[in-house]
Amino acid sequence: MKQVLVLNCGSSSIKYELFEMDQGRALEAGLVERIGEAKSCLKQTSSGSGTNWPSRTTEVSVPDHRHGIDMIRRVLSENASFDGGRHLVGIGHRAVHGGETFSRPTLIDDQVLAAIRDLIPLAPLHNPANLVGMEVARAAFPHVPQVAVFDTAYHQTLPRYAYHYAVPQDWYDSYRVRRYGFHGTSHQYVAKQIARHLGRSADELNTIVLHLGNGCSASAIRGGVSVDTSMGLTPLEGLMMGTRCGDLDPAILVHMGKQAGMSLSQLDTALNKQSGLKGLCGVNDMREVMAMAAGGDGAANLAVEIFVYRIKKYIGAYHAVLGRLDAIAFTAGIGQHSPEIRARSCRELEAMGIAIDPARNTAATGSETSEIQTVDSRVKVLVVATDEELEIAQQTLTCVRDAQ
Ligand code: AMP
After folding, report:
1. Collapsed DSSP state (helix, strand, coil) of residue 138
2. 199-388 has the same fold as 3-150
3. Which fold has domain 199-388?
4. Mind giving me the DSSP string for 25-71?
5. Which of 83, 109, 118, 151 is catalytic?
6. Residue 151 is a catalytic residue
7. Which stretches in the chain have pLDDT values below 50?
8. CA quadruple 272, 96, 122, 127: dihedral sign
9. Does the C-beta of 293 come closer than 6 Å to ligand 1?
10. How far is the CA of 326 from the centre of ligand 1 (A)?
């Protein structure tokens, strides 16, 4: 039996999931939260599958990431199948920003850590936390190969005209300003699931993947290769999100700086944390927003209208980019679980060969891949459950094997 541990280290949290790789089955998962705060906590979900796992929350003291990873190692040791880590063939780390340096999963060594450190200016919040996790995990599991799997890597195939911004060339040359795209692991996993479900090879399919969670992104995938994506230098661009604005006229920043006296850091906070659904109606959770809208709240109703309108615009744009479109996939929290958002995003697209069947749409649970288009729809519309951790585990295993 081969096992892979996936770690996702944030600034104050570590998510982990242990996989048995012969069947791609999760054995144990959990989250250490509020690291460094007075009351940290460990949430464990074990021996089951998906979101219905039994879960246990324990208050613990976790002063730093080293203690967090030690705790995860102890928790794993309680799982009989872990067997002291004897079957662990690799540890996969979710890494947010790989810049132009990393276009594939990469075995971690000192040079790789230095290169990720060099990319901190592009992801000042995420890359330092990822680095701490990698360093601590290397010390805790010194004999296990460790792999960095980058959120940006899948989109490194974008053509230059898609990733360049029309700004002074020096911004790219000196400051690495370009579109990188994020959620790459999810887009890649979903593209493969679509091909598997349709019984086709990924390289013969043109698809649009709509990852609609608290963060939202769209991608245009031609023959399994990402050719455009909505997030940019940072995850702020593109679709409207829970707390992020998505696309906007950059002159708005100048306007608000001059007129309202907002500083760069205030603008950054406003656009990343106080915009999107939250900015428009005070709440960032789509379930709550939709309940408010259904209860007659005009601001919530407008927020949902803008949300679906922007998805529709990206479907149109990426259909044009791809020319021939075979499938659209909805994934992540909103994409998998909201028939209403799916239906409204594709409303009146029949002329483009896209039509959703209401009964199939309502019946799709989001836990397994299902088709929701009408019999006449030229384009397949699918609901796909994303699994970024499993994709990271699989890429880790492949990378470790290739290195042997
Ligand atoms: P994620 O970031 O993928 O976990 O997705 C989180 C988002 O999915 C939140 O905005 C949730 O409100 C939303 N979500 C989850 N279930 C539903 C649902 N049944 N209907 C609408 N939105 C949902």
Report:
1. helix
2. yes
3. Nucleotidyltransferase; domain 5 (3.30.420)
4. EEEEEEEEESTTSSSEEEEEEESS-GGG--EEEEEE---SHHHHHHH
5. 151
6. yes
7. 48-50
8. positive
9. no
10. 26
